[in-house]
Amino acid sequence: ETTSAETAVAEKVSPSIVGVRVKYVYSDWLFGDQENEGSGSGIIYDSDGYIITNNHVIEAAMTSANKLAHNAKIEVILPNQVDEPYEATVIGRDVETDIAILKINATQLPAAEFADSDNIKVGQKAIAIGNPAGLELMGSLTSGYVSGLNRQIVFDDGTSLRLVQTDAAINPGNSGGALLNSEGKVIGINTSKIGGVDYEGLGFAIPSNSAKETAESLIESGYVPGRPQIGIIVNKNFTPEIAEEKGVPIGILVYKVEPLSAAYMAGIEDGDIITKFNDVEIKSFEELETEKNKYKAGDKVKVILYRIPEEGLPSEGEYHTIELTLGEKKG
């Protein structure tokens, strides 16, 4: 009896697929502190303890760039020692490619091999290994084909990724696990960020080349160089209805300008309403992110904003045109 490709791949790669468990405390005035837990998958990237996973698997446990929130904890579970999880530190994470790198204190781990995702063809075999429903079903394998390449998917938070599409079943816990070719090489990192409940046979993975490129930058410098940053915190409660009620233009309300950021240097102030970014009208934070991400750190862009007067009515403000040199996002 010949061994199927799936069995061969499972034997070869399963030891390289890990569980990622995230524990964090969510506090609000209504219910006080509540402990939450989430889980996903990861891939051993390097035998010295570097693990690659999705940023959205660990995001809830993070405050800012690479800092763990108070009382939060990220654990990596190796398939051969399920009862002894390793505590992980976050080396770096990148929202744009949805990739994060964790590090555990272990050596001689079986690292997965990565294939060149530019060579993937529609119709070739695709095998997914991950932990589809928490860690009870660790190392589950599903199999199918590559159904599409370069699919641009826009997520709820305004980020968009170009992904490999597959009909191999990918469930939430599979996030961060591997999509493999028939040789057992990684062609993608599974991501279940897309609402999968209404779709049968639609799985997506971040192409291995993009994942690898991000991973190398994160391991080297903790962030991906050249990503643009404005340096503002936005008040997301500002809606077109409120704008109309107050007689001010629709746009993004700047809640706070980060000290010494690009916005600070350009003279943007707390309370300004950004209405245009390089001649494109901006009505939501997602639209601002989309426009901003068309540029690199160091690019100059023209921002039009409406400044509310210190005295008098909000509707008596005036427009200013400002040149903004985008900063570099370090994590």
Summary of the model, kept short:
The protein is mainly β. The protein has 6 helices and 22 strands.
3D architecture notes:
The protein has a seven-stranded antiparallel beta sheet with strand order 5-4-1-2-3-7-6. A six-stranded antiparallel beta barrel has the order 8-10-11-14-13-12. Helix content is 14%, strand content 40%. It has helices at residues 5-13, 55-58, 208-221, 240-246, 262-266, 285-292, and strands at residues 17-28, 32-46, 50-54, 73-77, 86-87, 89-94, 99-103, 125-130, 132-135, 140-154, 160-166, 178-180, 186-191, 203-207, 228-229, 232-234, 252-257, 273-277, 280-281, 300-307, 318-325, 327-328. The protein has 331 residues and is mainly beta. The longest helix is centred in the middle third of the chain and has 14 residues, at 208-221. The mean pLDDT is 90.
Detail the poorly predicted runs. none
* Average of pLDDT: 90
User: What is the element string, with H for helices and E for strands?
Assistant: HEEEHEEEEEEEEEEEHEEHEHEEHEEE
Percent of residues in β-strands: 35-45%
Span of the ends, CA to CA:
51 Å
Percent range for helical residues?
A: 10-25%
Instruction: Report the C-alpha radius of gyration, rounded.
Output: 22 Å
Largest sheet: 7 strands, antiparallel
Side by side, the strands of the main sheet go 5-4-1-2-3-7-6
Structural class: mainly beta
Number of helices: 6
Q: Specify the overall morphology.
A: elongated
